[in-house]
Write a structure and sequence with these properties.
By secondary structure, the chain is an alpha/beta fold. It is 40% helix and 8% strand. A four-stranded parallel beta sheet has the order 3-2-1-4, with helices on one face. Helix 1 packs antiparallel against helix 2. The longest helix has 21 residues. It is globular, with a radius of gyration of 20 Å. The protein starts with 12 loop residues before the first helix and ends in a 5-residue tail after the last strand. The N terminus is likely disordered.
Length: 209
């Protein structure tokens, strides 16, 4: 049957641009899931009025604004509405690696950490630094409040507990595009001089596209 894509054509130019961005993001997600989806490929090319490479990346600004826009509802939608299990699965797999290879991970990088859902299941496995990176400032603002008792999949902390640095799950949270990551701008600034040759024992990228 005929397929169609509805895009708002009235209202302010800002509203129209937002609708087009939302439609483009939905189509790109569809192509990420199934690169052979000819209908999504055709619709995206029509929307952008040019031929599009299915693997073409959106700008960091677009990704940042997209995730900023639903940061406040992100945890609830994933955990409660979608019963999201990826963080706990990663935690279980990391635990199995420790059972067979080593006692604990030292420094851990959570690439595309979002609101910190994975940290809840990983932080007890590390005896070093837990560093999170994400392009969304609002996601990172939520992750900054994650402690051993609050946030990151648990209820948010009461205001009185927000300044308890001893319990934070992340020792550093950095706003940057993942393609900009290097040891020099992620781990090196946070370790002592005698540790400058160290690297990450574990790098996590949960549902990062």
């Amino acid at each position: 049957r005929p397929r169609s894509l509805l895009i708002k054509t009235s209202g302010s130019s800002k509203d129209q641009a937002q609708c087009q961005d939302n439609a483009e993001n939905a189509l790109r997600n569809a192509l990420t899931i199934d690169a052979t989806n000819a209908a999504a490929q055709e619709s995206l090319s029509t929307l952008l009025q040019r031929q599009v490479n299915v693997h073409e990346r959106k700008s960091t600004e677009f990704v940042s604004e997209l995730f900023d826009s639903f940061a406040d509802t992100f945890d609830n939608k994933l955990l409660n509405n979608l019963q999201y299990k990826v963080p706990s699965i990663i935690g279980d797999l990391a635990s199995k690696v420790l059972d067979t290879e080593k006692r604990s991970f030292h420094h851990v990088l959570d690439a595309g950490c979002g609101t910190g859902l994975v940290a809840r299941h990983i932080h007890t496995l590390s005896d070093g630094l837990m560093i999170g990176i994400d392009a969304s400032a609002k996601m990172l603002d939520i992750a900054k409040k994650c402690t051993k008792s609050y946030g990151c999949g648990l209820p948010p902390p009461p205001q009185a507990a927000e300044n308890s640095q001893d319990n934070f799950l992340y020792q550093a949270l950095l706003e940057m595009d993942l393609e900009q990551m290097t040891l020099e701008n992620t781990l090196r600034p946070f370790v002592q001089n005698h540790e400058q040759q160290e690297t990450f024992d574990l790098i996590i990228a949960a549902d990062v596209l």
